[in-house]
Design a protein that fits this description.
110 residues
């Protein structure tokens, strides 16, 4: 395997910077001061929870999750259920994260 050279690194870094600016900064400038349609705002509101759910589901459900037995696979699912309950009651990300850590730690002790 060949090592990457400085010109190659700078090209990759530049492409990443341009892509990040185009995808993150440019829309802010283009949409500044404009009112979006209500349906579009509602649809955009689903993006953060959907992205978070996809990340969590990827960690909770794996192809070989039951290979080590039922309890090692069920503990994270039970902790996630507790987090959902705390999140619905408190509507707080901080309390949800703390509850998830506590639930998982307690379940690992059992």
């Amino acid at each position: 395997m060949q090592a990457i050279t400085w010109p190659q690194f700078l090209i990759i870094f530049g492409c990443c910077a341009v892509t990040m600016l185009a995808c993150r900064v440019l829309p802010l400038f283009l949409l500044k001061g404009r009112q979006l349609p209500r349906r579009l705002e509602e649809a955009l509101g689903y993006i953060p929870p959907a992205a978070f759910a996809a990340l969590v589901a990827n960690d909770l459900f794996t192809p070989g999750m039951f290979d080590a037995g039922l309890w090692p696979a069920a503990a994270p699912l039970l902790a996630a259920g507790g987090v959902v309950a705390v999140a619905r009651l408190t509507k707080s990300l901080l309390w949800s994260a703390l509850a998830g850590i506590a639930f998982f730690a307690l379940l690992m002790l059992v």
